[in-house]
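User: Here's a structure from my thesis project, written as structure tokens. My advisor, Dr. K., wants to see whether a designed sequence matches the one we expressed. Can you design one independently, without my sequence as a hint?
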């Protein structure tokens, strides 16, 4: 299985890719405000790469439950200088975490190779046309609702079946928009329009989603459901729970882990791979 993202190419099965989170926002749930300065953001990205990050995911708009939206102009102002500088200094592929086609285009022009789209439940094709034009990698994530509404009252008849059906539908829509399957990664969207019980069911069913023949990306790092399961309140204290999820996800075929804690996750993934071999 091949994943193409601009000039980069990955072949699976392979050692699990670790995607380091770089939020250049003032209000993200875990690290909001820590890396809003471009110089601090660049330094943190370089630390993550040195720790083993295979990809860096840059986000300029918080997607935590209830987060306020920001304008296209403000999001571009936050992310483009960081991406442009990283493209000159960083050897790994850069991802833009955005819902906005205009931001995606600006980031791809600045040197990004991947669009990480939490709004892959969209009905318009503008984002997909941008991905096709740049031959970018594309992460299609499942979300019920929007960040402003998603946790109000998430309801499913069969969360695993509905997410699985979403993946089938998205792959067909993306192909119709000219995006090749080889460009696409699938993300079940843990915590995006799901209760704790929904998240647990999806994590237990990850192997089922491998049937689509595309790499799976999982993002559970520091998320609130881990705090509910363990009684740990502060996001930065949820690492052990996230590592448990990461190890089990590697066993079940997940190819990419999106994380805040790169060094620890790389170690967990390598050990899980050795045991699962």
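Assistant: Designed independently from the structure alone:
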């Amino acid at each position: 299985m091949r994943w193409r993202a601009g000039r980069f190419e990955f072949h699976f099965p392979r050692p699990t890719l670790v995607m380091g989170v770089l939020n250049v926002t003032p209000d993200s749930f875990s690290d909001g405000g820590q890396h809003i300065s471009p110089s601090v953001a660049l330094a943190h990205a370089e630390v993550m790469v040195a720790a083993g990050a295979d990809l860096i995911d840059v986000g300029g708009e918080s997607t935590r439950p209830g987060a306020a939206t920001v304008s296209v102009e403000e999001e571009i102002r936050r992310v483009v200088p960081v991406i442009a500088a990283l493209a000159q200094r960083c050897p790994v592929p850069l991802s833009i975490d955005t819902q906005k086609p205009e931001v995606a285009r600006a980031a791809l022009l600045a040197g990004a190779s991947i669009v990480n789209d939490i709004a892959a439940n969209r009905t318009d094709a503008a984002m997909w046309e941008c991905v096709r034009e740049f031959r970018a990698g594309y992460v299609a994530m499942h979300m019920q609702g929007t960040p402003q509404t998603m946790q109000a009252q998430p309801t499913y008849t069969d969360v695993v079946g509905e997410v699985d059906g979403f993946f089938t539908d998205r792959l067909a829509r993306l192909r119709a928009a000219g995006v090749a399957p080889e460009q696409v990664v699938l993300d079940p969207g843990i915590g995006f329009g799901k209760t704790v019980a929904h998240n647990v069911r999806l994590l237990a069913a990850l192997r089922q989603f491998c049937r689509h023949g595309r790499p799976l990306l999982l993002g559970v790092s520091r998320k609130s459901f881990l705090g509910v399961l363990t009684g740990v309140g502060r996001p930065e204290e949820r690492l052990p729970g996230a590592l448990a999820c990461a190890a089990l996800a590697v066993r079940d075929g997940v190819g990419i882990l999106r994380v805040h804690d790169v060094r620890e996750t790389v170690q967990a993934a390598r050990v899980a791979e050795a045991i699962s071999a």
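When you compare it with your expressed construct, this may help: The longest helix spans residues 72-89.
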